[in-house]
Amino acid sequence: MSGFQSQRHPNTSTDSSFKHNFLGKLREICVAHVEFSLQDSTRHKSIHFTVQDVTNYVHLQDTAWNLYLKGGVHFRQLAFNTKRGAFLSNKPTELDMRMTFIPPKKLLLIEPSQVHVSQDLFAVKGKFDFAGQGRIKLDIRTDTIAALRALSIIPPPLAQKIAQFNIVPVVKAHVRLDAPLKGGHTPRVDIDFQTKTFKYQSPVGPMSEIIALASFTNQLDTTLPT
User: How far apart, in whole angstroms, are the C-alpha atoms of residue 53 and residue 202?
Assistant: First the structure.
């Protein structure tokens, strides 16, 4: 929203009148074929995506903006630490997201929303806290996804650790991501999942009608770095 802010010393009365008389009347913002890229080699971050055709329905309520984004975004990569790989590498997504932006707190809240990644549907909620060092927290759930497609969304090193068990049925999963916005720290990732029934070729022979529960974290000891 900073693109609408005056560079002069703020006048509370004028600023309030401007927001409600001009910005307060905005209802839709349409964005098509806009590319966004952030490359930070010193902090090992790389974010690159293209907004293909997204409509943002907006509503100003006091000091908060209620936002509803709907449309397609193609992610090239979302890397908080390029040394550890990227999320959503070369993935088309379809957004159906409700958010609240609170400028005084520098806070963007993601209300319970839906995101299609290829043919899979994910429930998403979380927040981007831009104050201070900044932090992003996301909670992502899916009820039905083939494990191989799920592994293609997360960074390759993490996917390889999970895939080494050679158990790749259909699963429902819950992913929690906690990452700093500044610095080259690896985000914390916690994954819980449960499989549907599958067959498994074990060392002692074939097994069938198996259901597996599993969890993964990259910070088992919270006194150590991720």
Answer: 48
